[in-house]
Amino acid sequence: DFLFDSAVEAYYKGDWLSVILNMEKALRNKATVRKVKTQCRLSCANQTAFGAPLAASADPGPGSGSLADLSFFQKILQRAECVKTCESEKLGSPTLHEVTEDVELEFRKRTPYNYLQVAYFKINKLDKAVAAAHTFFQANPDHTEMKQNLDYYRMMAGVEEEHFKDLEAREHMAEFLLGKRFYSNDLFEQAAEHFEQAVSEYFTANQECRVLCEGAYNYDGYNYMEYSADLFQTITADHYMQVLSCKQRCALELASYTDQPFDDFLPSHFNYLQFSYYNRENYQQAIECAKTFLLFHPDDEVMKDNLAYYSAMLGEDKAQTISARQAVKEYIQQSILEKELLYFGYEAFGITFVDPDKWTPEEIMPKKLRDKQKADRETAARITEEIGNLMKEIETLVEEKKKDSSDMAKMVTPQEGGVPQVLDGVTVSLSEQQLNGSQRVLLDGVISADQCRQLQRLSNAAALKGDGYRGKPSPHSPGETFQGVTVLKALKLGQEGVPLKSARVLFDNTHTLMDFLKPFFLKSDFSLSWVVGFCCQRSEKQEDRTDLSHPVHVDNCLLVSETNECVKEPPAYTHRDYSAILYLNEDFEGGDFIFTKLDAKTVTAEVRPRCGRMIGFGAGKENPHGVRAVTKGQRCAVALWFTQDPAHEEKERIQAQEMLKMFSAPVNQEFFGNAESGASESPVQVDQAKTDMKREEKPEEKQ
């Protein structure tokens, strides 16, 4: 208290050095007290652990129960004495390091860093000012003034990105965030390393958090002078239940980043890990992590399917010898026992307990409480549905006023002078109402039959050079092979013998397709985020398929069909706002596009592909979609995603434009013109030209 108060007093006097001296010392002392208390309590717990209970007497005599009680309380007293002695030796009298609730709250809000960032700025220590400001902002992301300060710091000379660091970052969270960053960039080896370290650090942090719960009783809600509970209610029903509840909340505290906790935090580590190991073809570790995840969510169908696949790849016999992680088994067992005690306290004494975990088995919760929560959920769902229906009615009225129904049947584009011109041959086949949803439209005739053939040939040619979808032959379904090409890859293939005209068709049409869609989504500010042309066909090795060509999903959030939810967080492409698929052919069986409800089962609309047909839709949770299995032939299409975030505009298109400029040079025009017409220069000259171009590509490929 004294150090914090002294720093605040110095702040208002403008004594910046005293602010820094006292506030930094207060932060160091707080960290030291936490560390010492953790060490003392862990050490004493190990020294005075409860052993096996006294052996029951065959003929218990009078007082034998009291004898067992005395043995229990002896351990309690020994541990209390151990903790008191340890803390006194290392910290001195409790009055030297105890703080008031008000000051404790200020430290939890990271207020000291607010004072420090000003003080460091005043003495021109920008690196420390930035770190203090960033640290404060992590716990207070809605603090407008601090956000403005950080924006200001970013524009200042001498400020580096490395200065923006969280001085209070916990190791397990830092490792987890690094793992997610590598995971999002498909760097699965590095991702696995950081997720593994995050798991290790999590259990260390969890142990520290739990032991710090074993503090003094909080009389909040009681009048201390009138508190008159008996011995056992005081020890167990009140204080011990409070400690257990605190220990359970550690799961929430450790999952918190900025002011919001990650959902299903610890289980998510093993979700990320199993997929990372799969991408490294480390099926043994993938199986271990999948089985560990299933300890939390034993009925998760996706993970069970993953486990079955990994087991088949490794071998069923070997897979059966691999177990889930023992540390996690013990963690779950301990947590469930604590929850059972807390729910018993709820039933017996009315002590409230809010379970922080989503993975808790339903049967752990008392039936009375389950029924109450079920009724509350149903009421909330009904209210939400009623509000949703009301909002849809309002949106419909607004749409009717904004749009002229006659314009919805035509494609229009601005002409010079602002006069709209109807694009012949393009028709609106189905509106969002006819597609039984919102932000959906089906267009026909958007490209010609010749353009369809050229783009289909381009996707097939790409298969000989390597696909445009992260090098995976079957990214969506093991029952189909996938070959694709991006805009930039198409132009690069133009250097290697693939007709440049086909590559140019893909490049030129992508923006045209986007312009077709804009009138229907009433947005003029979205841009291309990613484009890929592809073909899918049934694998000859697969028989009796029942899966989908592309499972039902949502483009900008993670679909959880079991709960009808969609979580908008990585690894989902959260920046995507609109999507479209342009079909190139229809000479195949199966492969129909479907919209579903959030349950991923109830089909609301179905679209049959054909050349020149394009389905456009919003990329959010209102449009879960998938593709039925291709049972015969080859399905080809161009997939496009659009964003309103300029930071996620398609970078490849810029590179492609630069390459087209190179092609437009007289020398290159002559070369590529000859290549497309079948004419050839002397073998030496042509080979040398290709060699030079490949040499120029190498640095780009390394990036």
Automatic annotation (TrEMBL):
InterPro entries: Leprecan_dom, Oxoglu/Fe-dep_dioxygenase_dom, P3H, Pro_4_hyd_alph, Pro_4_hyd_alph_FE2OG_OXY, TPR-like_helical_dom_sf. Gene3D superfamilies: q2cbj1_9rhob like domain (2.60.120.620), Tetratricopeptide repeat domain (1.25.40.10). Residues 523-644 form the Fe2OG dioxygenase domain. Its cofactor is L-ascorbate; Fe cation. Coiled coil: none annotated. SMART domains: P4Hc (SM00702). The keyword rRNA-binding does not apply. One of its GO terms (biological process) is collagen metabolic process. PROSITE patterns: FE2OG_OXY. SUPFAM superfamilies: TPR-like. It comes from the Eukaryota. Keywords: Dioxygenase, Endoplasmic reticulum, Glycoprotein, Iron, Metal-binding, Oxidoreductase, Repeat, Signal, TPR repeat, Vitamin C. One of its GO terms (cellular component) is endoplasmic reticulum. GO terms for molecular function: iron ion binding; L-ascorbic acid binding; procollagen-proline 3-dioxygenase activity. Belongs to the leprecan family. This is procollagen-proline 3-dioxygenase.
